[in-house]
Amino acid sequence: MYGKAFAPEYQGELGSALSVNSSYEEVLETANLALADADSALARARAQLAVAEANRRLGRVDAAGSAWRASYRSARDTGDPAAMAWALWSGGTLARQCGTLPLARRLLGHAVTLAADSGDRLAHGYALAGLAETGRIQGDYAAVAELHEQLLEQGRAHGEARHMVWAMSGIAQMHRNTGDYEKALELFEESARIATEADDARGRAWSLRGIADVLSVRGEPDRALALLSEAETICRTMDLASALAYNHKMRGNVLYRAGRYADARDTYALALREFTEMHEPRGEALSRLGLAKSRAHLGRDRAGTLAELDVLESEFGRIGLQHAREMVIAFRAELTATPVPGTPAPRSGATTLRTPAVPARS
User: TPR repeats at which positions (predicted)?
Assistant: First the structure.
């Protein structure tokens, strides 16, 4: 059994003023008011953490970076290891969002240690989940598969729906990326059901995106697009800028797989603008790959596409996304195998490799 979803990153007075479904503009306004009224270092740390998370979700990465560091300094001043752990969790999550995966792992690793020492089970769980998600994004399934399962069991044991949704959707993503679409769909649908019953709108939006992805791979684009439209409404209501951009990138994937290359091109271009505005290089690079593949199908010269693929392969290597680098290699092989020079690229039926990963949520 599980209860209603809650957001433990909103602490102290903020915990009673905000919910897991509060829009991030509301979170930011409330947190700034709390920061102005803070009368202790711990109160400042908590308010600054909420400021950091709101700005991160809104795609304002510079403001988020300043806020989590301020939260950590305030927590250190008061000598509270749990508050320090929460700040490092926020910083590690931001680093992952910005594509700095080695830094994300370092910060999240420190967060795990501090949280364990403090006895704050939720901070410890969030930090472990952050490490698991970072490893999964990199395609390091052997290192994180068991950790996802442990997190799911913890969520079940303590009745924490948000943790269950988080872990379950991560496990589903790994099944999807290794070709077990039936299991992936089952887990994504269960994740969406739990999120709905627990009133976790954000979790439902990410779960719907996962369902749409699997349905698209299975050749059901109309159902996939309808689910993405529902998820987009949630993202807009909650001001989930990063999730909205990934929703649009997934819409591009669905359109591409359906052979609607012009629509896919335009949708990838939209996602690219959104990622660029929020300085999220991982999303930018993935959108650029989709855009390059769509343009290749629409008749772009092969030399231009190959040159862009070379740049993208280097960028994915720099970020540390081995799975995405393999997508580039696979499409280059398709492109160069085209028998007649100047003809459109062969249809692969997908914008991503089925093995290994596509990017996870932020």
Answer: 165-198
